């Protein structure tokens, strides 16, 4: 007897997982990754100008972009130095901002499954943008392409525009008049905002802003960002206490 259960044209194949992600062409992944890479990479110009305004040399500025390569930390460092902060405090603030990349790396290592010899080089490109592009892809192949294209395009453009910015800072004059010192943090916040999907995440972000701005006038430059990092454990502690009290209340009602 012939099998009468053959799938109709255009319908999913027998045994196929209906929840499986739709494939995405390599060209589409490259296009999206380049869009992010170009948009973010060009903001390296603002960092170069800001760094020069903070008193760093061309060599120091370019070394930060080549070796540190995480925009939020770089802007935090030069911003604290420009405000007269202690270099150690400024470096500590930049370090704590960069720690988030280590957690990105834990997730990306499982997703990308890169060969061991490649991982130390790929770690340099683990930043907000490459993580966002990689995690948005439906398959491991497209995630690898998205990560690579985004990382390469941002790294090359960021360093080229950093050099252009620090060399052109003298022609621009006083950087505060252009507001370029706010460009990097603005890009970072624009990337971060869509990731705040739960009430807890939004609460942590709000408390961090309040702590950072509240302590800005009274603490040395670079220290408020360290205080703002206490927002996450503080919010989680308060929510944990509420959960315990709620559980006890429900337990008492059940006994009644």
Describe this structure in words.
The chain has 256 residues and is an all-alpha fold. Helix content is 69%, strand content 0%. It has 13 helices and no strands. Helix 3 (58-68) packs antiparallel against helix 9 (140-172). The longest helix is centred in the middle third of the chain and has 33 residues, at 140-172. The N and C termini lie far apart (66 Å). 31% of the residues are buried. Mean pLDDT is 81; it is low at 1-18.
How are the SSEs ordered, and which strands pair?
Blueprint: H1 26-41, H2 44-53, H3 58-68, H4 71-82, H5 87-98, H6 100-112, H7 119-122, H8 128-135, H9 140-172, H10 183-192, H11 199-215, H12 223-228, H13 231-255
Helix pairs in contact: 1-9, 2-3, 2-4, 2-9, 3-9, 4-5, 6-8, 8-9, 11-13
DSSP, total strands: 0
The poorly predicted ranges are: 1-18
Strand content: under 5%
User: Shape from CA axes?
Assistant: flat
Number of helices in the DSSP assignment:
13
Assembly of the depicted chains: single chain
- Secondary-structure element order, as H and E? HHHHHHHHHHHHH
- Alpha-carbon distance between the termini? 66 Å
| Percent helix | 55-70%
Major sheet: none
Summed over residues and divided by their number, the pLDDT gives a mean of: 81
Secondary structure category: mainly alpha
Radius of gyration: 23 Å
């Amino acid at each position: 007897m012939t099998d009468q259960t053959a799938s109709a044209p255009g319908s999913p194949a027998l045994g196929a997982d209906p929840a499986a992600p739709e494939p995405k062409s390599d060209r589409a992944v490259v296009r999206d990754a380049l869009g992010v890479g170009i948009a973010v990479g060009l903001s390296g110009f603002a960092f170069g100008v800001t760094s020069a305004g903070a008193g760093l040399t061309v060599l120091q500025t370019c070394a930060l972009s080549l070796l540190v390569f995480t925009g939020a930390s770089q802007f935090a460092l030069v911003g604290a130095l420009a405000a007269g902060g202690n270099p150690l405090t400024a470096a500590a603030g930049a370090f704590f901002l960069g720690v988030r990349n280590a957690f990105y790396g834990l997730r990306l290592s499982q997703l990308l499954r890169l060969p061991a010899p490649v991982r130390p080089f790929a770690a340099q490109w683990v930043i907000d943008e490459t993580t966002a592009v990689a995690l948005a892809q439906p398959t491991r192949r497209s995630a690898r392409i998205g990560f690579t294209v985004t990382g390469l395009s941002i790294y090359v453009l960021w360093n080229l525009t950093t050099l252009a910015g620090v060399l052109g800072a003298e022609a621009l004059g006083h950087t505060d008049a252009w507001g370029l010192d706010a460009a990097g943090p603005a890009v970072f916040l624009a990337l971060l905002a869509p990731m705040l999907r739960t009430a807890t995440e939004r609460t942590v972000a709000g408390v961090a802003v309040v702590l950072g701005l509240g302590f800005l006038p009274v603490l040395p430059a670079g220290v408020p960002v360290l205080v703002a990092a206490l927002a996450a454990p503080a919010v989680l502690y308060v929510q944990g206490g509420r959960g315990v009290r709620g559980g006890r209340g429900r337990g008492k009602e059940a006994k009644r």
